[in-house]
Specification:
elongated, single chain
Length: 154
């Protein structure tokens, strides 16, 4: 594959959906490109604004929070896994307002608590906490919420 063909293919790849550098580099390796060719294509994509790590991080954070209801810890871990810089991660987390985050947490926690049909309160608490921790919410938020939900039962 020529550099020109790779540029066109990757322009379409990046225009379809926001991509991080790691995804693009992986795609180029799959296309059997050499390191020098990959550098040329990456520079072209950045100059033409097809590839922007900050824009990717912000879009990723907004989407995962609004659509999959992920917490900040899970979003941060996923962005780190994609080799996004800590500066861009901090910018991405600012995309989620405190009000929106709290509202999503409340809705998700209420729905989760009500969906667990467990007679033993300790097992119910564990299932709830495990689920919310997997979603990436902060443990202090979760434990305060579980205490509040248990008081409602009494």
């Amino acid at each position: 594959m020529t550099i020109r063909e790779a540029k066109q293919k990757l322009e379409h790849f990046c225009a379809y959906q926001e991509r991080c550098h790691a995804e693009v580099v992986s795609k180029l390796y799959d296309l059997k490109m050499t390191s020098d060719e990959i550098d040329i294509v990456i520079v072209h994509l950045i100059q033409e604004n097809f590839l922007n790590e900050t824009r990717f991080a912000c879009s990723f954070a907004r989407g995962k929070h609004r659509i999959k209801y992920w917490g900040k810890i899970r979003i941060t871990n996923e962005l780190k896994f994609r080799q996004i810089s800590s500066t861009n991660i901090a910018l991405a987390l600012k995309e989620i307002s405190a009000e929106e985050y709290a509202e999503t947490f409340e809705q998700l926690s209420e729905r989760c608590w009500n969906s667990i049909h467990e007679k033993n309160i300790l097992k119910k608490r564990k299932k709830f906490c495990d689920y919310m921790l997997r979603r990436g919410y902060e443990s202090d938020l979760i434990y305060n919420k579980v205490k509040e939900l248990e008081l409602d039962l009494e």
